[in-house]
């Protein structure tokens, strides 16, 4: 300890203090300030560039998402349109079918009606024709039968024979 | 990569150019300090090297006529004596270091004893010593000489100014430095991001980064300079490390905020009776122990490194008897080579530790305790006297 104190040189301490103070001031002014400022500037520049890149990336992603959304919407719209068209088509077909069916039914009914009335008319006509014809035939037969005496007798006998049988 | 090598080679060449021509001329002086051979001489030589020196001697040898030749150059001696300022060249002491050569300047007599300049009493003509080899008829003077350490400080200061201002200039024209600047930039970033920012705190580190950077490179470069064969031992001088530690002390004392002083003088969260006692301990810690630990750590590590390297080199002489010239020389070379490698690491480590601790002390002084004191289950404040201590054990 004694030796250490003896070795301590106050003069060197004074000189060193002055030189160190000078060195710190000079270094700060001519070296550290410009160096640290430029380093900060550079780091801020890099940070800025990184941020800008990140922002651009985010915007790009947003844009892409928008595009995707638009596409999705368009697809959805197309789908609904197609669906609607399909529905319309089937509805139209169903409507047409129903109408056709009612029309046909109506026509059939009308036809049946016409047929029955025609049939009735035909039957009436046929009846009157058959009645006339029968009367004519009967007239002719009777006339023919009653023209001969024998035949009249024979007929009477036949009728009597039938009557006996009864 | 090649370019960096070329650049550093250029810098090295510059250094050599500065030093070589001045060292070529021989100082053909008599004086003592003969061969270094025995154990005592080795001890004395190491002691001498550890101390600051008034000459810049590169090597010395004894020629065939038994004359001692010194190669190096003298440095100016500037002393503040009782009669005022006196200046002369150190060559006037003729390499004498035990007070036998008296230099008289304008009526004031000076002698150099163990690298210290003494002013002799007016009527004395020679230094007389007591039993402990202390001068009895002289006293030390304030020695403002340009000693070897001052030369080292000046050299490193200029080197730092030159290289870092060059780096600063590079940024004006380009974003990324080229050449040697590419080596320096990561070091600056390292000190800023690994030492200043985490220890001082994000909010305040900008104010102190300049000081921390200066101190870091100053200590590191001087430590490395100490490993060169020029024999500098600047960071192994107590005056230098004390100066560095006191700078840190002044900075953290001046910039300490209310919280810091509050925690030193009137520690919150402890019983009132203990607070004055704690204040004494805290004051001693802040004003004496912290700077003392800084100055002693650096001084002791660097001095010890120098002593170990020189002792290992001295194996060459000390073990010559038992191992022979080749054996002792190669043993000394191998051992001192490896210890020098470790010293390169220590050079960085000590600069790092000094800067880191300085940053930490500053950080403790400017830290903002915006947290409320935690409360325990009974509603008492939990003392936070320990909350920063754990960070730097």
From TrEMBL, chain A:
Q: Which molecular-function annotations from GO does this UniProt entry contain?
A: proton-transporting ATP synthase activity, rotational mechanism; proton-transporting ATPase activity, rotational mechanism
Its principal location?
A: membrane
- What Pfam families does the database record attribute to this sequence? ATP-synt_B (PF00430)
Where do transmembrane segments lie in this chain? Answer: 12-32
Cellular localization per UniProt = Cell membrane; Endomembrane system
What's an example GO cellular component term for this entry? Answer: proton-transporting ATP synthase complex
Q: Which residues form a coiled coil?
A: 36-91
Q: Please give, as recorded in its UniProt entry, the membrane topology of this protein.
A: Single-pass membrane protein
UniProtKB keywords: ATP synthesis, Cell membrane, CF(0), Coiled coil, Hydrogen ion transport, Ion transport, Membrane, Transmembrane, Transmembrane helix, Transport
Assembly description: F-type ATPases have 2 components, F(1) - the catalytic core - and F(0) - the membrane proton channel. F(1) has five subunits: alpha(3), beta(3), gamma(1), delta(1), epsilon(1). F(0) has four main subunits: a(1), b(2) and c(10-14). The alpha and beta chains form an alternating ring which encloses part of the gamma chain. F(1) is attached to F(0) by a central stalk formed by the gamma and epsilon chains, while a peripheral stalk is formed by the delta and b chains.
State its role. Answer: Component of the F(0) channel, it forms part of the peripheral stalk, linking F(1) to F(0). The b'-subunit is a diverged and duplicated form of b found in plants and photosynthetic bacteria.
Q: Which family does it belong to?
A: Belongs to the ATPase B chain family.
Kindly provide the name given to this protein in its UniProt entry: ATP synthase subunit b
In its UniProt entry, the species of origin is given as Winogradskyella eximia
From TrEMBL, chain B:
Q: Which Pfam families match?
A: ATP-synt_A
Transmembrane stretches in the record are: 150-168, 208-228, 234-252, 264-289, 295-319, 331-354
Q: GO MF annotations for this entry? A: proton-transporting ATP synthase activity, rotational mechanism
Kindly give the Gene3D superfamilies that the UniProt entry links to this protein: ATP synthase, F0 complex, subunit A
Q: Which UniProt key words apply to this protein?
A: ATP synthesis, Cell membrane, CF(0), Hydrogen ion transport, Ion transport, Membrane, Signal, Transmembrane, Transmembrane helix, Transport
| Main localization of the protein described in the UniProt heading | membrane
This protein's GO cellular component annotations are: plasma membrane; proton-transporting ATP synthase complex
The superkingdom listed in its UniProt entry is Bacteria
The membrane topology term of the UniProt record is: Multi-pass membrane protein
InterPro entries attached to this UniProt entry: ATP_synth_F0_asu, ATP_synth_F0_asu_bact/mt, F0_ATP_A_sf
Signal peptide span per the entry? 1-26
Subcellular location per UniProt equals: Cell membrane; Membrane
Q: Its function?
A: Key component of the proton channel; it plays a direct role in the translocation of protons across the membrane.
What family does this chain come from, according to its entry?
Answer: Belongs to the ATPase A chain family.
The name on file for this protein is: ATP synthase subunit a
What is the protein's species of origin? Winogradskyella eximia
């Amino acid at each position: 300890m004694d030796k250490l104190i003896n070795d301590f040189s106050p003069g060197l301490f004074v000189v060193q203090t002055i030189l160190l103070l000078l060195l710190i001031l000079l270094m700060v002014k001519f070296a550290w300030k410009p160096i640290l400022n430029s380093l900060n500037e550079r780091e801020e520049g890099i940070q800025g560039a990184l941020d800008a890149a990140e922002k651009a990336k985010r915007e790009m992603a947003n844009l892409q998402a928008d595009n995707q959304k638009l596409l999705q919407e368009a697809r959805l719209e197309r789908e609904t349109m197609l669906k609607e068209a399909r529905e319309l088509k089937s509805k139209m077909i169903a409507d047409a079918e129903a109408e056709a069916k009612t029309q046909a039914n109506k026509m059939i009914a009308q036809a049946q009606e016409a047929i029955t009335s025609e049939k009735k008319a035909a039957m009436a006509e046929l009846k009157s024709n058959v009645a006339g014809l029968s009367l004519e035939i009967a007239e002719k037969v009777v006339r023919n039968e009653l023209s001969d005496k024998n035949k009249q007798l024979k007929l009477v006998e036949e009728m009597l024979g039938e009557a006996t049988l009864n | 990569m090649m370019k960096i090598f070329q650049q550093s080679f250029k810098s090295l060449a510059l250094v050599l150019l500065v030093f070589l021509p001045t060292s070529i001329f021989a100082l053909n002086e008599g004086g003592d300090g003969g061969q270094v051979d025995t154990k005592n001489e080795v001890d004395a030589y190491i002691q001498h090297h550890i101390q600051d020196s008034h000459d810049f001697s590169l090597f010395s040898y004894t020629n065939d006529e038994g004359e001692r030749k010194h190669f190096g150059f003298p440095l100016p001696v500037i002393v503040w004596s009782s009669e005022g300022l006196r200046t002369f060249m150190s060559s006037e002491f003729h390499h004498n270091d035990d007070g036998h050569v008296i230099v008289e300047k304008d009526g004031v007599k000076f002698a150099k004893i163990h690298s210290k300049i003494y002013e002799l009493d007016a009527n004395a003509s020679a230094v007389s010593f007591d039993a402990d080899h202390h001068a009895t008829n002289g006293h030390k003077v304030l020695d403002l000489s340009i000693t070897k350490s001052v030369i080292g400080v000046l050299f490193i200061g200029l080197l730092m100014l030159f290289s870092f201002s060059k780096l600063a200039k590079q940024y004006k024209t380009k974003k990324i430095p080229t050449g040697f600047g590419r080596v320096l930039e990561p070091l600056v970033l390292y000190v800023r991001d690994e030492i200043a920012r985490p220890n001082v705190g994000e909010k305040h580190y900008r104010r102190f980064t300049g000081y921390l950077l200066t101190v870091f490179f100053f200590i590191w470069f001087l430590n490395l300079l100490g490993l060169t064969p020029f024999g500098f031992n600047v960071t192994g001088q107590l005056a230098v490390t004390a100066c560095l530690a006191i700078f840190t002390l002044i900075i953290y004392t001046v910039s300490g905020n209310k919280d810091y002083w509050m925690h030193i003088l009137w520690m919150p969260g402890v019983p009132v009776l203990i607070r004055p006692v704690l204040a004494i301990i805290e004051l001693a810690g802040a004003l004496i122990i912290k700077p003392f630990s800084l100055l002693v750590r650096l001084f002791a590590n660097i001095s010890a490194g120098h002593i170990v390297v020189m002792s290992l080199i001295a194996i060459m002489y000390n073990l010559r008897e038992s191992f022979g010239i080749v054996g002792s020389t190669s043993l000394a070379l191998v051992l001192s080579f490896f210890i020098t490698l470790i010293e390169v690491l220590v050079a960085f480590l000590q600069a790092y530790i000094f800067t880191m601790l300085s940053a930490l002390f500053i950080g403790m002084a400017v830290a903002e305790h915006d947290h409320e004191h935690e409360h325990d289950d009974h509603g008492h404040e939990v003392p936070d006297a320990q909350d920063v201590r754990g960070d730097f054990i």
